Amino acid sequence: NKLFNKDECAIYQDHYIEYILQTSIGFAGAEICRRICGIAGVKEIRNITDVVLKNKAEDMALNAGVFMVENFKNINRIQDLIVKISDF
To answer: Strand runs (DSSP E) across 1-88, as ranges?
Structure first.
């Protein structure tokens, strides 16, 4: 006897890949928030000399990070994430 038949194995693989994607999105969101709010900062944003532009970049990154942390379990495809955070 096999542990999984072919169809069950495919379903398990799909769920596992979705779990990895969602977990990665949540972790990445937390890392974005940590980098924006932390001491180290983000070199690419820290080097922006225009204060208004710098604040906007920080806000966009922080909003995207918070969204990712709060919604990672609702995102099933990377394309969905891209669409959602492109509005920030």
So the answer is: none
